[in-house]
Structures are given as structure tokens and as C-alpha cells.
Amino acid sequence: MSAPDLLLLGIAAFLAGTFLGSLLVRALGGRPISHLPRAYRDRHAETQEWLERRKILRLPGTCLVDSVRPWILGETAAVILLSAAGILGGGIAEVVTAIPVAIAFGAGVLFLALRCEARRALLSVQRDLPVACFLLSLLIESGMGPSAALQETVTALPPGPLSREIGELVRARSLGVPREETLDRSRSRVPSEEYRLFLSHIRQGERLGIGLSGSLRELSSKLLESQRDRAETIARQAAVKMLAPLVLFIFPAVFLIILSPVLFGLRQMIRG
User: Fold this and answer.
1) How far is CA 268 from the centre of its chain?
2) Are 149 and 136 within 8 A, CB to CB?
3) Tens of pLDDT, residues 38-70
4) DSSP for residue 144
5) Phi first, then psi: what are they for 60, rounded to 5°?
6) Cα pseudo-dihedral 233, 236, 239, 244, rounded to 10
């Protein structure tokens, strides 16, 4: 790398460091440096919310993602690609040329990681929903109102996407947002048929005054039965999915171990 390339690279690194420093100072807002991870999380949560609001990020379930792991993976992938371009290319021109490729590659990694996290969050909602229905039915049977029962259900559930979503539902109601609007927002945020059925039961119980505890208990049993059927289906598919690795990797290795003495013996007999 020549001297002009080193000079340009140093200027670019200085400008990038200054820009990142200003962003960090703005994100911290006068708080100590120990708040940096939280500021990093808040900034990326705001960016993700802005992308969802602008309809740029249209993955189902991304509203439930509360982790910055996808952003870390995407940014790390872009930095690694830029570093590889600088090391292998040997000049500032190669680094500048690789910037659009690095941004596209980082965005692709971010997209895939967000999709995986969204799927994991939806599976967590489906897993915890029968427990939430059962707890809510028990609390309503004990004489609590629907809002108070929802609040207690949030505290009883394990931390996860479902508890955060029901907590957001309770928080919106406590701030004076109409019940129908809060239910519609939660329905649009969670693209799960089981969760929408759960919200429909709550809406019908509050609007028509029907026995909410009995309907929720019945819904909980139906959800548990559907989870059992889904688990049995996955278990039946496991044998079919294991067939390809067995045939391609395990069986040839076993045959090679078993038949190798015979093959060596035949080879010696042929040579002898």
C-alpha cells in the first residue's frame, strides 16, 4: 500500500471515528459510558421501528424481536468484508469499491437474522399461549376483572415475546387507549392465528359479557392439542429428514470401516 493510500485511509478512518463518536455522544445524552450497551440497543430499536413504519421491513413477526443480535451480525459482516477488501486489495480504491457490496452483504445478513429471530419469536408465542389462556381463565374465575387478570398474567408468564405483547396491551389500556384500538394494534403486530383467536375471545367476552373463563379454558385445551399434533408431525418427519445424512455420510463410513480389512486382504491376494 502506497503512502497516498495510507493517507486517504487515515483520513477516512478519522472521519468515520468522528462520526461514530458524535453518534455515541448523542445516544448517551450525558449519561456515563456504562449506559453505552443500552443506548446501542435503543438506537437500533428506533431504527427498526422506523423501517417497519415506513414499510421497508416487511417481515412477519419483526415487531416481536427485542434482540440486537441481527444488527450485530449484519454490521460485523459488513466490517469483515471491508477489512478483507482492504487487506487483499492493498489499496484505498478497492475499499471504496467494496463499500456498496459490504452494505448489501450486511443488509442481507441482517435480513436473514431478523427473519430467524421473528420465526423464533412466533414459535415462543405459540408455545406460551396455552399457559396464558389457562392462567387468565383461573384469574377471571377467582373474581378478577379482565384488565387486572391480564396484568397478573404478564407477571406470571416467563419473559418473552408473549409477555411483552400482553404487557403492551395492558399498558395501552392504562393510558386511556380504547380497548378496540389496543386489540386491533396487537392483532396487527402478531401474525399468529392462535394469538388472534385469543384476542377474539377477549373481545367477545368484554363486548357481549359471555363467560370468558370457560371459553379461554376451552381455547387452552385446543391449543395444547394442536401443539401435541404438531409435535407428533415433527417427530414423524424426523426419520425422513435423517435418511439423507444416513445414506450420504454415515452408511459409507460404516461400510468403509467394516469392509476395509476385506479390501486390504483382496489387494494382498491379488498382488501375491
Assistant:
1) 59
2) yes
3) 777 878 788 888 888 888 888 888 888 888 888
4) -
5) -70, 125
6) -40
Residue 209, all three cell numbers: 359479557
Q: Which of 98, 87, 95, 90 is nearest to 1 (CA)?
A: 90
Give the Cα separation of 29 and 116 in Å (integer). Answer: 33
Unique residue bearing C-alpha cell 373474581 = 143
Q: Which three cell numbers stand for residue 63?
A: 415487531
Whether residue 173 has pLDDT greater than 80:
yes
C-alpha cell, 198: 385469543
Cα four-point dihedral sign 168, 170, 176, 181:
positive
CB 57 within 8 A of CB 114: yes
Of the candidates 129, 165, 146, the one whose C-alpha atom is nearest the C-alpha of residue 204 is: 146
**If phi over 0 gives left and psi between -120 and 50 gives alpha, with beta otherwise, what is residue 31?**
beta
Q: What are the residue ranges of helices labelled H in the chain?
A: 3-28, 36-53, 69-89, 92-141, 146-156, 161-174, 179-189, 193-208, 212-241, 243-245, 251-271
Q: Over the range 196-223, which residues count as b (16 or more CB within 10 Å of their CB) and which as e? A: eebbebbeebbeeeeebbebbbebbeeb
Quick one: DSSP state of residue 60? T
- 60, amino acid identity: P
Q: Which domains does the chain have, with CATH numbers?
A: 3-121 (no CATH), 125-232 (1.20.81)
CA-nearest of 101, 105, 122 to 59 is 122
Q: What is the pLDDT of residue 112?
A: 92
